[in-house]
Automatic annotation (TrEMBL):
Cross-referenced Pfam families: RNB (PF00773)
Residues of the RNB domain: 290-574
GO molecular function (one): hydrolase activity
Source organism per UniProt: Pseudodesulfovibrio karagichevae
PANTHER family for this protein: RIBONUCLEASE, RIBONUCLEASE II, CHLOROPLASTIC_MITOCHONDRIAL
Record keywords, A-Z: Hydrolase
SUPFAM superfamilies recorded: Nucleic acid-binding proteins
Keyword Phosphoprotein: no
Domain of life where this protein originates: Bacteria
E.C. no: 3.1.13.-
Protein name: Ribonuclease catalytic domain-containing protein
Length: 684
């Protein structure tokens, strides 16, 4: 059969043609043609007018213009059926494979020549229809078809699959979420539909993303669609996910919001980089210079950042503070470095600890474990008899810690005067505190409730006990760490080494200085303070009573300290810091954002468990102290829990004063929404 050509200059009456209507090819018969304008009879028996330019670039056969309406209808039906059968047998993907890489675009008859030695109008039209539907592989730009390259086809196929998934999720999601909400309200198990695994996975992704408020624009639209009609209640997605069972009871959604991976599994993605660091550590290990320093930490501490040794220096002191150097073999800017920066800080929560560093490094290779050689920053602080700082001399060295002591053991040794070194350390710490108080320091001492958990899931029980204080050893550690951070900040200032400083450059009234232990005094003092800011300029930290403060003593636990350690170590090794001030300023914006996000987890999660504890004891009376009576709502503190609650003044009585003691119980406590309402308040 002779090949026909695509649309010629004119289309005469009696020609079978096709045009696009509703994104589909429409079959029609030309009744009249005049100056490029056509009157058509469609296969649906409708007459319409159409410019010839609207026709698809294939036409025929050309038959008698005098055919009857019934004959026309029969012909159109026959052509429709024939073309449908041909189209069903075409493999357009195979055609794309043949054409891809040959040309960028071609007319339809070029593609027909690839498939057939001879073809007619029906084959040509069927091929055109099939290629119009293959939008992932071809683009129709009349009168030719463009051939998408392989990369673009892969992208379009992926987008097409995602769109189909979104449509499927949206169609079943609304029904599922409604039943989950009803099940939650009715306290029953949900009647879950039989979902395909990919749909279930997609819906779970949407719910988890909403819990952490990390949905992208597309998933936000899906969430809006599937949650339509549900009440706008706090943590709706979390409640639905827990009812479904994809998230456990007591799920820590704060971690999701901070995009913080709990545990140590995250570090498995960086196994090769960690091995390289361990190899560099082994190849550079040196004989320890210091072997008589000791650390003081909690008995459960595994990431040991600091240790010290102390001796008399004339009438004063020589204090050597030893700090871990996890950056000693680090590659800044590497994928592992970026992951650790994103974590920003370690988390110490009732459910456990999640370390900033990979545990192989942070609790192993670089932790100052007794008897193990470690790279360290050793700083000698020379102080006068009254604790006045006279000289700061830092250096890098390898050390071997003599002992890892607990707060309790160190406190006992100081109290019983069995360890001269610890006694000397306590003597110096006392002088350091006195000097800070004289400089206007605001020292807050309050009970420390220890929250512990037993059991799993809905069966988790909460216990709260007050930590037994170790005042002498705690004073030694806190004062030595403040000295190290402030002393090295002053050394860096004098030597032109830019650091990240915690500053609180404000003027405090004299009543803000001192040691505060009573809840009302503590709140009054805290109200006078502003949160410290992170900046590169060394300035006063008013609450600590020091002229400058650059955190460096916890490089295993905080990225700010990690960066400062690298700055000091680099300067000692080469005479130049690793980053200049402008580079540090650029880092601060992102680092501040991550610190705020992760710190919110540390701030809110222990309170959640405290409220869970109180929920089980809602009707039991708890001791409380009035700390603020200003305004219509008064504030009560529960020191044994370190939880503050608000109550209407009229509930507490007519005569109120800070320090007034009450026994209180509660009408409602919701740990998830942080809601707590008093039921009774009886003055003691």
């Amino acid at each position: 059969m002779a090949k026909t050509t695509p649309l010629g200059p004119t289309v005469r009456p009696g020609t079978v043609v096709e045009f696009m209507h509703g994104d589909q090819p429409q079959l029609a018969w030309v009744l009249e043609e005049s100056s490029g304008k056509l009157r058509l009879l469609t296969i649906n028996k409708r007459e319409m007018k159409l410019p010839a330019a609207r026709l698809l670039p294939w036409h025929g056969p050309m038959l008698s213009a005098d055919a009857s309406r019934q004959d026309i209808q029969n012909i159109l039906n026959e052509r429709q059926e024939a073309r449908g059968e041909i189209q069903a047998g075409l493999d357009v993907m195979e055609l794309w494979e043949l054409a891809q890489g040959e040309v960028e675009s071609a007319p339809l008859d070029w593609f027909a020549d690839l498939l057939w030695e001879e073809w007619d109008e029906d084959r040509l039209a069927a091929l055109g229809r099939a290629m119009l539907q293959a939008k992932t592989h071809f683009k129709f730009r009349p009168p030719v078809f463009e051939i998408w390259p392989a990369e673009k086809v892969a992208l379009k196929l992926r987008q097409q699959a995602e769109e189909k998934e979104r449509e499927a999720i949206t169609s079943v999601g609304q029904t599922l979420l409604k039943d989950l909400w009803d099940a939650y309200n009715q306290g029953r198990k949900p009647r879950l539909p039989d979902l395909a695994p990919d749909l279930a996975k997609g819906l779970e992704r949407i719910l988890r993303g909403k819990v952490g408020e990390i949905l992208d624009e597309t998933d936000r639209k899906i969430w809006t669609a599937i949650s339509k009609g549900l009440p706008d209640v706090p943590h709706l997605a979390l409640l639905l996910a827990q009812t479904w069972g994809v998230l456990p009871p007591h799920h820590n959604y704060h971690l999701d919001e901070a995009e913080y991976a709990w545990g140590d599994e995250w570090s498995q993605s960086f196994t090769n980089e960690i091995k390289e660091i361990e190899n560099r550590f082994s190849n550079q290990a040196e004989a320890p210079e210091i072997e008589d320093a000791v650390s003081i930490d909690a008995s459960t501490t595994r990431d040991i950042d600091d240790a010290f040794r102390i001796e008399r220096h004339g009438t004063g002191y020589r204090l050597s503070i030893v700090l871990a150097r996890p950056e000693a073999h680090w590659t800044f800017g590497s994928p592992l470095d970026k992951a650790v920066l994103h974590r920003a800080t370690s988390l110490y929560l009732p459910e456990g600890t999640s370390h900033m560093m990979p545990e192989r490094l942070g609790t192993g290779q670089y932790s100052l474990l007794a008897g193990e050689p470690r790279p360290a920053l050793v700083t000698d602080f020379f102080l006068a008899a009254d604790g006045t700082l006279e000289k700061v001399e830092p250096r890098t060295a390898w050390v071997r810690i003599k002992a890892n002591t607990t707060y309790e053991d160190a406190d006992r040794a100081i109290a019983e005067r069995t360890d001269e070194s610890l006694m000397l350390a306590h003597d110096l710490a006392t002088h350091l505190l006195e000097r800070r108080l004289a400089s206007g320091a605001c020292v807050i001492r309050k009970p420390e409730p220890i929250v512990s958990l037993e059991g799993d899931g809905a069966q988790t029980s909460v216990n709260i006990d007050l930590k037994e204080p170790s005042p002498r050893s705690e004073l030694v550690v806190s004062e030595f760490m403040i000295l190290a951070n402030s002393g090295l900040a002053l050394w860096a200032r004098d030597n032109g080494v830019p650091l990240l400083h915690r500053t609180q450059d404000i003027a405090l009234p004299t009543e803000a200085a001192g040691i505060f232990t009573e809840p009302a005094e503590i709140l009054r003092s805290v109200k006078l303070l502003l949160p410290p800011t992170l900046e590169t300029a060394p300035k006063r930290h008013a609450a600590l009573g020091v002229p400058a403060y650059a955190p460096i003593t916890s490089p295993l636990r905080r990225y700010t300290d990690f960066i400062n350690m690298a700055q000091v170590s680099s300067f000692l090794a080469s005479g130049e810091p690793r980053l200049d001030r402008d580079e540090l300023d650029q880092l601060i914006t992102h680092l501040n954002m991550r610190i705020q996000a992760v710190s919110a987890v540390q701030r809110f999660r222990p309170r959640y468990w405290k409220l869970v504890y109180l929920t089980k004891r809602r009707r039991e009376f708890q001791p409380a102290v009035l700390v603020d009576e200003a305004g219509p709502m008064a504030t009560l503190a529960m020191p044994h829990l370190q939880v503050n609650v608000r109550a209407p003044r009229k509930m507490l009585g007519d005569k109120l004063y800070p320090g007034q003691r009450f026994q209180i119980n509660f009408s409602r406590i919701d740990p998830l929404t942080n809601e707590i309402r008093l039921s009774e308040a009886l003055e003691e």
